[in-house]
Structures are given as structure tokens and as C-alpha cells.
Amino acid sequence: MADLSLAPGLKGEYRVRVTEAHTAHHTGHTGVYVYSTPQLVLAMEMACTAALAGHLPEGWNHVGTKNDMTHLAATPVGFDVVAKAELAEVDGRRLVFRVEAYDDTEKIGEGRHERFVVEWSRFQARLEAKAKGKG
pTM to 2 decimals? Predict the structure, then answer.
């Protein structure tokens, strides 16, 4: 395994302006024009990705493995959302982040997100083998 040299305290942010494409309506909850929970989860995961940018050795990447998040408040179209992540725990290749998100007026989400560091060539080989076995 490569030396990851990751330590708690790494931080990242992800920002997005809410459009209709980010709403619950767009994901199938007809008539609900607020920032959807799946989009909130995505923003929090992207904040974790931003925290890790440039910190992994070549040939290594990371994938999400667990989400434990609470969507606290609705956000209308036109508002900005900022998701923030801080690496809280490193357990080998398992990374645990504290995540939170805010819109223009209040905190809209919080929780924990886990990611796992993977050797990308091995990950891809397993995925290709799985795809070949389908059918």
C-alpha cells in the first residue's frame, strides 16, 4: 500500500447555485421545487473530494462508502449552497469526514461521510471482471 500521509484536519468546500435541475421535482418528487436531498449528499461528497485534492499518490483514488447525513432545512431555487468537509479520522485507507452545508440564510445539512482510498488499477480490474461476468 502506498504511503497516504493523510491526517485529520484536511478541509474542502463545494459551492453550487440551486437551479431547477437540483430540485426534488427534477428527481421525481413532482411539484417540490427545493434543493433535493440527493443533491445535498452530492455536494457534501464533492466537499470531501475537494479536501483530498492533491493529497493522494499517483495511481490512487477514493470512493464513497457510507453516508450518515441529515437534511435540516429546505433551500429554494436561486440560493447558493456551500458544503464543507473536514477529515476527522484516518483508519488505514478508511477516511471519515464531518460534513455540513449552508444556504444563504442557514445551516441546511450535517453529518458524516466515509470514503475509502483505492489503488485505481486494481479497482478498475475488479469492475471490468464484474462487468464481464454479467449476463
Answer: 0.92
